[in-house]
Amino acid sequence: MNNKVKVAAIGNHDTIVLFNAVGIKTFITDKVSEVERIIYNLVNENYKIIYVAEELYESIPETIEKYSFDPFPIIIPIPITDQSLGIGQKKIKENVEKAIGIDIF
Question: Which of 2, 10, 31, 91 has its CA 20 to 30 A from that of 64?
Fold first, then answer.
């Protein structure tokens, strides 16, 4: 039995090149429709963690909501530039608050 957790990253080349360097499966795109299709396929292939470039993450709220009720996949936004949109930090804050019941940030 293979217990390896499947992890993927979706975004433009500059955003996800480091993920590829550490052995994470990467998908290069900047099209919202492709991101939704890729996530759907990754879910069917039992990927547990999916990193999505913050700009794309913000553009797919229905897809994020669809999978938010299941334990997997965990879809995590990653900043794409030095001017992060703050979505990743906000999502972490929400998850921590939900888990422990208080805002520690």
Answer: 2
Out of 30-39, 53-62, 76-85, pick the least confident: 76-85
Burial class (CB in 10 A: 0-12, 13-18, 19+), 16: buried
Distance separating alpha carbons of residues 31 and 105, to the nearest angstrom: 33
pTM score? 0.76
Q: Is residue 85 part of a domain?
A: yes
- CATH code for the domain in which residue 85 is found: 3.40.50.10580
Phi, psi of 39 (to 5 degrees): -60, -45
Question: Encoding tokens for residue 13?
Answer: 């080349």
Angle at 12 between CA 17 and CA 79, to 5 degrees: 80
Query: What's the number of domains the chain is made of?
Result: 1
Of 53, 55, 27, which is closest to residue 41 (Cα–Cα)?
27
